[in-house]
Amino acid sequence: MIASLDSFGASRFPLTQGETCAANYDPGQATIIGLLSAAIEACCGDAWRALTASLNNDHFLAGSPGPVGSVLTVPPNPQNLTQVKMAWPVLAVYREGEPTSGQYSIDYNNSTQRWSVDWIAGPFSPDTQRKIGALWVPISNAIRAAIVEGMHPAYQNGAYQFHGQFSEIRWITSAGPAVTQELTTDKGQGYYGGSVILETVERMTFQSDAAAAITDFDGGAYLTPHDGYGTPATGADVTVNYDNKK
Fold first, then answer.
1. pLDDT band at residue 135 using 50, 70 and 90 as cut-offs
2. CB-side exposure of 119: number of CA atoms within 13 Å?
3. Cβ(200)–Cβ(166) under 8 Å?
4. What is the pLDDT of residues 71-117, one digit of tens each?
5. Which is it for the CA torsion 140, 141, 145, 148, positive or negative?
6. CB 156 within 8 A of CB 37
């Protein structure tokens, strides 16, 4: 991989050639997805499989392999949920709204961004809600704990995930469980799930000699080693493989 010349939070430039997955253009999003998928499975996977095993054999969640069946990187509105073929439950992670500009320090500009993490178990009937709906509480707690800690023992040997991705990441609020009645399908009477809202701070840095020569940025042109960015830092680029979640 070509070393970054300039970085803005999780985005590093120049982009590498031959990218095959859209998430590779936003490594911070891929890191959140990888961490939270592992945390949800480790904390709630066995309980999820025990509860779904009690469903009728013809139920669409019968035999569900785990609490994250597939990943969505766009808002999970009814149009997206019906047009994209996915395995339930769906974990949706996406940037929300417009970022705001700020200054991380005298030397670094930053951008503050809100994110939504939505867990949608599927179109549920009231009977299914009663059987497995309570699982949203521990799932939301697993999401928040992984974000607060920045790691989970089940993911990449417990390594901290956000060096070189975000200057800060924090959970803001959560909502749910809830059911939307915007869409009724043959599988149930509305989508069931919940949301956790996150906030990140991404700072702008300059790593090339050309960028460092710009007078306005001379004061903080280079990052210190071990921060997770490219040369001269020693941290490796973070990559996440969740092809099995398509």
1. very high
2. 27
3. yes
4. 988 888 877 777 667 788 999 999 987 777 776 555 567 789 999 99
5. positive
6. no
- Quote the pTM value: 0.77
pLDDT over 70, % of the chain: 65
pLDDT, tens digit, for every residue of 157-188?
Answer: 999 998 777 888 999 998 888 876 554 444 45
Q: Which residue has the tokens 């139920």?
A: 59
- Could you tell me the CA-to-CA distances from 34 to 25, 29, 170, 190, 238 in Å, in that order? 15, 9, 16, 27, 11
If DSSP states are collapsed to H, E and C, what string results for the chain?
A: CCCCCEEECCEEECCCCCCCCHHHHCHHHHHHHHHHHHHHHHHHHHHHHHHHCCCCCCCCCCCCCCCCCEEECCCCCHHHHHHCCCCCCEEEEEEEEEEEEEECCCCCEEEEEEEEEEEEEEECCHHHHHHHHHHHHHHHHHHHHHHHHCCCCCCHHHCCCCCCCCCEEEEEEEEEEEEECCCCECCECCEEEEEEEEEEEEEEEECCHHHHCCHHHHHHCCCCCCCCCCCCCCCCCCCCCCHHHC
CA 45, 64, 51, 92 torsion: positive or negative? positive
Q: Which of 31, 22, 10 is nearest to 156 (CA)?
A: 31
The rounded distance, in Å, linking the Cα atoms of 29 and 39 is: 15
**The tokens 């939270």 sit on which residue?**
36
